[in-house]
Amino acid sequence: MRVLEDDLFPSTPGKVKIERAGTMNRQLHRCFASTSTMFLWALFLIAMTASYLSFQSFVDTSSKYFAASWGGLHWERQIRASAAPRRPPGSAAGAGMSVLVTGAAGFVGTHCSLALRKRGDGVVGIDNFNAYYDPSLKKARKALLSSHGVFVVEGDINDGRLLAKLFDAVPFTHVLHLAAQAGVRYAMENPASYVHSNIAGLVTLLEACKDADPQPAIVWASSSSVYGLNDKVPFSERDRTDQPASLYAATKKAGEEITHTYNHIYGLSITGLRFFTVYGPWGRPDMAYFSFTRNILQGKPITVYRGKDHVDLARDFTYIDDIVKGCLGSLDTAGKSTGTGGKKRGPAPYRIFNLGNTSPVTVPNLVSILEKHLRVKAKKNMVEMPGNGDVPFTHANISLARQQLGYKPTTNLDVGLKKFVKWYLSYYGYTRGSKNFRQ
Ligand SMILES: O=C(O)[C@H]1O[C@H](OP(=O)(O)OP(=O)(O)OC[C@H]2O[C@@H](n3ccc(=O)[nH]c3=O)[C@H](O)[C@@H]2O)[C@H](O)[C@@H](O)[C@H]1O
């Protein structure tokens, strides 16, 4: 720029008038020449950037394609083999189902997949193995499933292409949708994960189900948390559910509304199950009974929340085997979806059931039972319940599930926690008297 200015306004005043016109012409010519050079350079740079970007997107797409853990003939063979029912011909229970279980490497997903497989149904699992809690526990559950012939695809329910591929490979009769972002209090830390899994993921799954031919019947996990601030006990399916206390609860409530629209528009058969604080072997480490056990064994303090005026919090803790019976009962009684290729052919069932235990236990009582089975005294910090989405108590009315599913919980908290503690000690390699934990 300095060179150009110096040339246009030369520093020798006497020459200015005489040489001005010629100099101007020359300078303008040079100026245009350099502008067009700059223009060409700019074009060249734009072309380079464009080709770099398209190369990048090619690399991204192809690396995604090549890195995908699904697809291919071998993969499809595994899917079909896992999905094939193996009930003996002429079995009273019929030909058997082909069930796609989402969240199969999760706590409830693993137990349900095993129970389905054991009675001869075909099961394919899908799980994204996210790191909300220790993924090695999820991998261990996957290994357990694999040893029973259940194949689990590593993938996300937000991946519509993967879901379409699964429905192309297998005419699933049922979907047991358990994949979700769980946990009531974590919603304040990571709200987006609840929207991603419980809203966006649910819609992607429903889209795949509605497009599938045949359309499967869907049984999915809602939550007792939808009762929110409702204080009429026991909670009945007819009670109001429009006062959620946490974002988790709000996304589960939204799921009930979203599934209703898919039932209404596309004729998908829907059953929503409101689980009440499910616990047991292979459970979720983020839940109180599990983290209390870990801390008690490690000699660390536990924080026990208390309600207003020092009232103890209570939960209708429900043992996993009872929940599994409720899930299988729901699959067995689910009416068929009526649509094909995204078109409704007639009304389909829309059901919601409470799956609880009907006998709430206070959190301090839960701790006493754990102390008894662990034979270790807990170091308790009693603190007032923070305003983080918790509700003071839950209590299920299960008449509807009893009537329509034959649901009848049989395991009380004492027996259930005894089984959990036995599993915990063996899974984490703890021998009484020793301080060697794997955790
Ligand atoms: O039924 C459900 O729909 C939900 O059940 C479960 O939620 P919750 O009933 O809240 O279970 P959980 O966290 O074990 O806390 C149990 C009790 O311990 C208290 N609690 C908890 C932690 C702590 O450090 N201290 C404490 O006192 C706490 O205040 C509470 O009173 C599932 O996690 C959830 O995903 C969903 O499925």
From TrEMBL:
This is UDP-glucuronate 4-epimerase. It is found in: Golgi apparatus, Golgi stack membrane. It catalyses: UDP-alpha-D-glucuronate = UDP-alpha-D-galacturonate. Keywords: Isomerase, Membrane, NAD, Transmembrane, Transmembrane helix. Belongs to the NAD(P)-dependent epimerase/dehydratase family. Its main location: Golgi. One of its GO terms (molecular function) is UDP-glucuronate 4-epimerase activity. It is a multi-pass membrane protein. InterPro entries: Epimerase_deHydtase, NAD(P)-bd_dom_sf. Its EC number is 5.1.3.6. Coiled coil: none annotated. One of its GO terms (cellular component) is Golgi cisterna membrane. It comes from Dichanthelium oligosanthes. The chain crosses the membrane at residues 31-55. Residues 99-333 form the NAD-dependent epimerase/dehydratase domain.
